[in-house]
């Protein structure tokens, strides 16, 4: 019996979220008196997982899995869990894992808790703390099934290094045509840029920027911070920016360490998707803008003056 994690990777490299999940799983395994096994898919070098508490890695290599496919990936994770006799299966709350996790839970006849924000409050009974209502409330959920699947919210648990090395072994799950019933025909990738899902810092622009021609200053700010760019819904609806960048309730969720909102009013539907970010900064001419109510830091000022000054100042560091 071990704790199993799905350690995500992209283009042959482990993602940071894989190390976060490993750190989390290590603590869960300690409280259960067991070890951590990770399953990876076409992940290349997986040795780093050992530094974050993983004892064993089941490495799956299969060209058919180069593109994420929820059903097939869920089957891989399910078979890895069965092979290890895992009683707790832990995934992240990334877009891919959010698709796969419920399918894994159904396959294992397991209870499932998403949006888990802390280590289990107890493991017997197994009780986890989850966020709810767009992060406005928490709830305690008890999982009573023999096998439990949990999806941990991004950035709710930091990296914590452990001494040790993971033993890697090849793992070949049985996949059949039904696993590939859902065909991904096209994948649009934003190349060379930090993606919103992986970013520690997100710089986001709203209608206050007046038009797409004014995004250069936000791009400069994002470059100097190594940040991903995002925008409010109207900005993408107006075609100023791609829908890839739309964040909020109906867009991508953001759970970065730092979220900088420039010329964004802070409508409830926007805040709902970005509220999990640790530190929120608002830059807005209107001191009554709702964003200031949830912001940790606020600058009441004209973005066209504030942002270029910020960029110049940050370049000094
Ligand atoms: P505005 O509300 O127009 O705000 C612009 C802000 O810029 C103002 O606060 C203004 O003071 C400020 N400003 C103006 N000039 C400057 C300047 N020079 N410098 C600095 N500040 C300046 N919205 C989302 O973002 N994401 C969603 O997922 C989303 N989902 C929705 C779902 C539903 C069902 C509905 C009904 C709405 C949804 N919306 C969503 C829309 C949301 O309600 C708001 O309309 C939207 O977030 C407003 O975008 P904004 O802040 O960019 O624009």
UniProtKB/TrEMBL annotation:
Statement: the UniProt record of this protein carries the keyword tRNA processing: no
Top-rank taxon: Bacteria
Cofactor entry: FAD
Record bears the keyword Flavoprotein: yes
Binding site for FAD: 207, 263-270, 284
Cofactor comment text: Binds 1 FAD per dimer.
Alphabetic keyword roster: Electron transport, FAD, Flavoprotein, Transport
SMART domains: ETF (SM00893)
GO BP of this protein: fatty acid beta-oxidation using acyl-CoA dehydrogenase
UniProt family annotation: Belongs to the ETF alpha-subunit/FixB family.
Name of the protein: Electron transfer flavoprotein subunit alpha/FixB family protein
């Amino acid at each position: 019996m071990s704790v199993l994690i799905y350690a995500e990777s992209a283009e042959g490299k482990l993602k940071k979220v894989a190390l976060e999940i490993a750190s989390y799983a290590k603590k869960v395994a300690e409280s259960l008196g067991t070890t951590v096994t990770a399953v990876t898919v076409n992940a290349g070098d997986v040795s780093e997982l050992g530094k974050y508490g993983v004892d064993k890695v089941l490495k799956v290599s299969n060209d058919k899995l180069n593109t994420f496919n929820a059903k097939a990936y869920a089957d891989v994770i399910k078979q890895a869990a069965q092979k290890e006799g895992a009683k707790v299966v832990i995934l992240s709350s990334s877009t891919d894992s959010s698709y796969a996790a419920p399918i894994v839970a159904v396959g294992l006849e397991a209870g499932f808790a998403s949006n888990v924000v802390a280590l289990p409050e107890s493991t017997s009974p197994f009780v986890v703390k989850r966020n709810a209502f767009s992060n406005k409330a928490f709830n305690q959920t008890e999982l009573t099934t023999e096998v439990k699947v949990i999806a941990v919210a991004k950035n709710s648990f930091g990296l914590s290094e452990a001494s040790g090395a993971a033993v890697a072994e090849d793992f070949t799950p049985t996949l059949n045509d039904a696993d590939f019933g859902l065909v991904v025909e096209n994948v649009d990738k934003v190349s060379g840029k930090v993606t919103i899902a992986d970013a520690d810092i997100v710089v986001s622009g709203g209608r206050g920027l007046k038009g797409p021609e004014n995004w250069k200053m936000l791009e400069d700010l994002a470059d100097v911070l190594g940040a991903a760019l995002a925008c409010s819904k109207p900005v993408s609806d107006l075609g100023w920016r791609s829908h890839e960048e739309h964040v909020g309730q109906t867009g991508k969720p953001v759970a970065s360490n730092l979220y900088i909102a420039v010329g964004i009013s802070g409508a409830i539907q926007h805040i709902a998707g970005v509220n999990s970010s640790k530190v929120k900064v608002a830059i807005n001419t209107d001191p009554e803008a709702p964003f200031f109510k949830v912001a940790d830091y606020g600058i009441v000022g004209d973005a066209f003056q504030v942002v270029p000054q910020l960029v110049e100042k940050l370049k000094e560091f």
